[in-house]
Amino acid sequence: QVQLVESGGGLVQAGGSLRLSCAASGTTFGFRSMGWYRQAPGKQRELVASIASSSSTNYADSVKGRFTISRDAAKNTVYLQMNSLKPEDTAIYYCKRENIWGSSAWGQGTQVTVSS
């Protein structure tokens, strides 16, 4: 079983930056992919960025060119560097880890608030 802990959220002004971290512990072998999702009040959870075991990445159109996902395999940690933040980026950010056997785990979420 994998446990995920997100950190790095907070309050930032528009145009600022934050870096989120998602650290995995427990049964961490068999990594397939990790995704960062976000959910704003009254909206559905959406995929923001993902990274596969091959290191290929994928981004939502709304964050392309501003967000960067990366992974430190030795630390079992995935990062989301968020630059040029906008008020519409305000949400709870969750990480989701999928393994090669098809199961997945979610973190508890971290709040990101961008003030205008």
Largest sheet: 7 strands, mixed
Silhouette? globular
Extended strand count = 11
Average pLDDT reading: 96
> What is the helix fraction of residues, given as a range?
under 10%
Strand content: over 45%
The poorly predicted ranges are none
Count of DSSP-assigned helices:
0
Q: Structural class, from secondary structure content?
A: mainly beta
**Nearest-angstrom radius of gyration?**
13 Å
Q: How far is the first residue's CA from the last residue's CA?
A: 40 Å
- What order do the helices and strands follow? EEEEEEEEEEE
What do these coordinates show?
The protein is mostly beta strands and 116 residues long. The chain is 0% helix and 59% strand. The chain contains no helices and eleven strands. It has strands at 2-7, 10-13, 18-26, 31-39, 46-52, 57-59, 67-72, 77-82, 91-99, 104-106, 110-115. The strands form two sheets. Strands 2, 4, 5, 6, 9, 10 and 11 form a seven-stranded mixed sheet that branches. A hairpin with a 4-residue loop joins strand 5 and strand 6. The mean pLDDT is 96.
Structure described in brief:
By secondary structure, the protein is an all-beta fold.
What descriptors fit this protein?
single chain; 116 residues; mainly beta; seven-stranded mixed beta sheet; four-stranded antiparallel beta sheet; 11 strands; 59% strand
Write the layout of secondary structure elements.
Layout: E1 2-7, E2 10-13, E3 18-26, E4 31-39, E5 46-52, E6 57-59, E7 67-72, E8 77-82, E9 91-99, E10 104-106, E11 110-115
Parallel strand pairs: 2-11
Antiparallel strand pairs: 1-3, 3-8, 4-5, 4-9, 5-6, 7-8, 9-10, 9-11
